[in-house]
Amino acid sequence: MVKRKQLLGILGVCFAIGGGIVWIFHEYLISASLWGIAGIIILRLNKYRSRSKRR
């Protein structure tokens, strides 16, 4: 089974790679939004990590 954190990480990587591919085709607004979603996912993963260290 894939854990929730791993699934979010994989999803974040997919959004980041998708943003890079879209950037090549000169669709800058779409690529910026995909990278923004990837950034939000990374921040969420960092929040999970800080919660687990506090316990």
Please provide a written account of the structure.
There is one protein chain. The chain is an all-alpha fold and 55 residues long. It has two helices and no strands. Helix 1 (4-24) runs antiparallel to helix 2 (28-54).
Largest sheet, strands/sense/barrel: none
Structural category: mainly alpha
Helical content stands at: over 70%
**Termini gap:** 24 Å
Query: What shape does the CA trace take?
Result: elongated
Please give the radius of gyration in angstroms. Answer: 13 Å
| Helix and strand element order | HH
Number of helices: 2
β-sheet strand percentage: under 5%
Q: Could you list the spans in which at least 5 consecutive residues all have pLDDT below 50?
A: none
Mean pLDDT: 88
**Care to count the β-strands?**
0
Helices and strands in order, then pairings?
Layout: H1 4-24, H2 28-54
Helix pairs in contact: 1-2
What's the gist of this structure?
With 55 residues, the protein is mainly α. It contains 2 helices and no strands. The chain starts with a helix and ends with a helix.
Features:
mainly alpha, 55 residues
